[in-house]
What does this fold into?
Amino acid sequence: GVSASRPTCYVRAMVGTRGWLAVMLFVSVACGGDDDGGSSDAGGGDTGASACSTDSDCSDGLFCNGLERCAMSRCVAGPVPCEGMICLEAEARCDDSCPDADGDGYRDAACGGTDCDDADDTRSPGVTEVCDVDDRDEDCDPGTFGVRDADGDGYPDAACCNGANCGSDCDDAFAGAHPGLAETCDAADNDCDGTVDETVLRSFYPDVDGDLAGDALASPVLACNPPPDHVENDADCDDGDAAINPTAQEVCEAGCDPGDTDCVDENCDGASLSGDECECTVGETTSCCSGRGTRTCEAGTGTFGACSVMPVAEACNGIDDDCDGTVDEDAVHTCYLDEDRDGLAAAGAETSERCVCENGWTERAPTSPSYVDCNDADPEIFPGATEVCDTVDSNCDGVVEDKDRDGYAAIGADCFGGVPRTDCNDFDRNQSPGIDLSIFYLTPGDPRGCGGASGVDCWDLDCSGRVVKSLRTPPPTEADCGGLCAAQGYCRAQGFIADWETIPCGASSPVAYCGTACGPGECQYRVLSGSMGCR
It folds into this structure.
């Protein structure tokens, strides 16, 4: 047996899953003892091992973490099985058909496992891929690479690779460079296509004479911004003379003939101004376009200078006051002939462009009813004139107030003065307050006819509000009708009234005839029943 006065130590060597030696020390102190024979339970502390009586008390039911045993009434772990092999927990056995040499839990890919490097436990499917400079495949997946986006532009660094699979950001320290970004002129490959500032570089040309026109014979300098003494054009035909450039005034060289090679092309247009092309001779004067002031021919240009009197606003005077080459523009008016000079013209009136519309002309265009004069020969007739009760359309509204021309306007007509407004039928000149009823044959004892009531054959001829009734007998004679009655009927001063119940105007019958004496508008008569009679 083991003396209770001496501490008993159990040492177990364990080989971890990565092949490293781990030492676990379990110390069982019986009684805390000394040589004096103290009890193992008095003064000693429990080291944490479980108490047991048999090995079965210590088993955790797992195979791959080793077999637990009961030693000295305490559970101790046994050695981990399957070193260098795969431990199959479900089958409680070690599989040595495909090794896991680096102990990272993944078998060698060479024998069907997934470990792409079974000699390096930092490379296996369980390891996170990182961005490294040597393109290592940490997670054994060629399709992944470690992502690094130092500039935060959403594109991984192109230096992060896993074989040929890499990030796309060609400059991960500059957020202004990544695929899809438009190229700008900044000396950076903004779109990461491998070319810097393509399509955005500008062409600059030397400007030695400082006239802002670049040398037409020089080669361009490609840059984002102009270098010193350079401009973005090549229009200067002589970059050694600031007086020669496209904006210079061509000088008229009196002694220069067309075709001379020594003539100067001041404005670089490819041609010089020879003597015979000069507009004028030096000192010559001409009047200004407006007729006020003069212009003098200037030396060098061979052209007339500015007018000695400044142009003024255009006026309607037959002069080009503002010297724009057009006379009286925006100052004339379209005038319309107004023959009666009442301020309005007739439809289709003659027009004339004039400074002022006067003396029988008006600016009012006859294009709307309110501006069309229906009688341009009478100044009292025009739209808006006061309508007089007569047979004339004074206000050009298309209506006259005495339509039947019997000297009476309709009752309530919209007019003033003139004839009375008392006609009860302004469409029949034979019915009006001026009718003489004595020429009619009336009912004996009822001189106004019909007993004052209206009937089928009764009319209010004199607009008195009372009606008269025609008689069939006795028949009138031609003498009664002014020689116009040729048969039975009823006559009036304008003709005779036939049997209106059966004979229409202009027709004949055995007993009555309405002759040709009935004129337009005078032969038909509207009775209260709606029938038409003939007079």
Q: What stands out?
A: The CA atoms of residues 344 and 368 lie 11 Å apart.
